[in-house]
Fold this sequence. Notes:
Strand content: 15-25%
Bound molecules: glycine, manganese (II) ion
Number of domains: 2
CATH topology of the largest domain: Creatine Amidinohydrolase
Structural class: alpha+beta
CATH architecture of the largest domain: Alpha-Beta Complex
Helix content: 25-40%
Number of helices: 10
Radius of gyration: 22 Å
Order of helices and strands: HEHEEHEHEHEHHHEEEEEEHHEEEEEEEE
Distance between the termini: 51 Å
CATH class of the largest domain: Alpha Beta
Amino acid sequence: MKARIRRIFEKLSPEADALVLLNSASPHIDSSFFYVFDVPSGLFEGCAAVARADGSLTVLTSPLEEESAQQAARRDRDVSVEVIRGREEREKRLSELVDAKSRIALNFHELTHEDFLSVSSAFPQADWRDASTAVRKCRMVKDAAEIERLRRAAEIGSRVAREIPSLLRPGITELELAGEMEYRMARAGASGRSFETIVGFGPHGAEPHFSPQSYGLVPGQSIVCDFGALAQRYVSDITRSYHFGPTDSEMKRVHEKVAEAQKAALDQVRPGVPAKEVHLAAARVIDASPWKGLFNHGVGHSIGLAVHDGFALNPRVEEPLEVGMAITVEPGIYIAGKGGVRIEDDILVTPAGYEFLTTAPREYLEVSA
Ligand code: GLY
Ligand code: MN
């Protein structure tokens, strides 16, 4: 983790003497805490990490994760762990570890206002810096250990995506299918789901972020399943669309158009290409079709320790793709009242273009009722 911390400090502008990461209560945990501290188990609510430019790290852990934290520190000689009990003790120890007049960088992007007030009162003379951009830029480009975890998370997602057709039957509810998918991810080794599983049958598939309900599957409906696995804290994010036969011919054409849009977007992916070009390639295909205007979100985003990991592919983002970025490419067409199709893959940007992390079939598939 030393190399990651050093990279953050190289990118910090203006410079800082220390980087302090603070976790509040779940879900308000700073995912960058796990970027600098590689610990496989534990929630680490109310904990803190103090990183320095030489790559060293002090973790202030609650007693609830002490054993995991100590084990992780034994594997990394640049990390030391201390146990604190509560926010007051945490702030007191922080004020001993970091000089009162320091230039202290905080990750404003994931810091709660309450924690900011608390740490500010412990350091009335500090010169605060925002580390968000430096942290985001470092996290955008993955190292080998991160890629291995993303690959594993993607393999689990792909495996379950392949199994979904065998789970479809008349009357199965969206919640039952989502539960079955999550169980199968766990059985395949996931430590959890990377976000709330999306399953939408028929008209529900037209809402990109639909939350599954007690709504039964009816023959003739299309199905959107968007889900992901966690592997050692790294996510996958995959969407597959299925068609529970007999479906009408429009949804088949919609599926083929979305696949064509995804291919056009993927064809743009290579180092140096502005993110917006990937989006625009997909949008051009859909906007030249009978479903013009029915693609209503950005074509993708970065993935890593978070599912939306600080980098978006939409028409406003000029930032170029870089080797080592892990991103999704996920165009969709959404027909209100009828249904939707989205195809989402996780890919890694390589010197020659890209490599798929998710591998499940993406072609039109009509499953017999
Ligand atoms: N998988 C949900 C999303 O990317 O927004
Ligand atoms: Mn996504």
